[in-house]
Amino acid sequence: MMLSRVIPALAMTLATASLLANVSLAQEWTRFRGPNGAGVAASGSGIPSVWEPDDYNWKAELPGIGHSSPVIWGEKIFLLSADPDTAMRYLVCLSTRDGSQLWRRDFKSEEHHLHTQSSYASSTPTVDADLVYFAWSTPAKTTLIALTHDGQTAWERDLGPWVSQHGFGSSPIRYKDLLILHNSQQANQLAAGETPGESRMMAFNARSGETVWETPLTSKNVCYSVPFILETPGAAPQLICCSTAEGIFSINPDNGDMNWKAGELSMRTVASPVQVDDLLFASTGSGGGGNYVIAVKPSSKEGAYEVKSSGQFKANYVPTPVAKDGLLFSWYDKGFVNCLDAKTGEALWSERIGDGFSGSPIRIGDRMFCISQSGDVYVVAASKEFKLLGKNSLGEDSRATPAVAGDRLYLRTYSHLFSIGGGTSGGKSN
Predict the structure, then answer these.
(1) Which CATH number applies to 35-420: 2.130.10.10, 3.30.479.10, 3.40.50.300, 3.50.90.10?
(2) Global confidence as pTM
């Protein structure tokens, strides 16, 4: 009788260990900018800085166009695309092995005004072991939908109108049993008769889609920053985000209570907040310039310093920075890469390398990868000295952020997805 109890228990333990191991391997790139939004890959040392034709595993054509970045779970890639003329949304699943389309879901929509550098598919999905979550919007309806990994609808929510000047681009994230969305909306510079939007941070039960909590936020400029979870030894986890009116702010992710906010910003935030050691960074700006970066100490909720754009430092607007060893690397929209000493705020170097950047950089070890607007992938050393390690052309414009999983690099242009490095398991295609 004792043995009959031990064997099933042991089998369950082994099954659980196997499941956790598989989950650990699968969870390499599940949201915008990868694990916890840091833009740092756990694998990819074998990905080259300069690649040859043989380094391409495959190239896959996508329906429509879009700026949504890929997310990966196991052998499946998920991303959002759209028809630029009809606003039809395409929810797409591809195979990591050969880039083949495993399934596609089409959702009719309506045309509406977009910024010239935006698209109807600028939001990156998030994925967990069971479901993949997409978001998009028209002025009248904001859609949040969860699909199974084989493309079946698990639940769908209409979150109401979306008020903005430039179109939708907010990316959801997963935390514990929650799906969280930064629902920031416009309240100034509205068209005649237009009603200001209602901004809020929203959390949903990831399995059912039911609202768990909502935290009202001040509406000013629509902001696109994606939050991350700040975990500090001895302290409760904090949901960190940034916006024009709130500056950098902290919310209790379990119940939605506002913990603190600091550093109200003067312009829009598109880039997401970044942690460098004991400081939190946020940037603000506009297409016309005037960008700057602020640093906040979360323990005291005080601004550490503010860095204005200058000859020594050109602050990012759209791309989110990446960090390493106490350094903040800012990729400026107009083609510059900058290095900042996070502790002192000193600009260490600023170099122009490309025509412009809208996607964000990611870091693999001591190398940064970022796709320019014209589709060139620049590889730069994440160090105190500027070193350009590589430049690789994809042959098509891009506004997306790279992803890394299984020692492979995934790069999205307007209408194609590329897999590079890590060896081949499913052949190559051109």
Answers:
(1) 2.130.10.10
(2) 0.91
Instruction: Give the H or E element holding residue 19.
Output: helix 2-26
How buried is 179 (Cβ within 10 angstroms: 0-12 exposed, 13-18 middle, 19+ buried)? buried
Q: Is-contact 390 379, C-beta < 8 A?
A: yes
pLDDT tens per residue across span 305-331: 999 988 889 999 999 999 999 999 999
Contact 120, 132 (CB under 8 A): no
CA 195 – CA 161 distance, rounded (Å): 10
What's the length of the chain? 430
Phi-psi region of 148 (alpha: psi -120 to 50; beta: other; left: phi over 0): beta
- CA–CA dist 85, 32 (Å, integer): 26
Q: Residue 21: helix, strand or coil by DSSP? A: helix
Strand-pairing partners, residue 80, are 91
- The pLDDT mean for the chain works out to 90
Q: Tell me the C-alpha distance between 314 and 330, whole Å.
A: 8
Give the separation between CA 202 and CA 325, rounded to whole angstroms: 33
Neighbours of 48 (CB within 10 A): 14
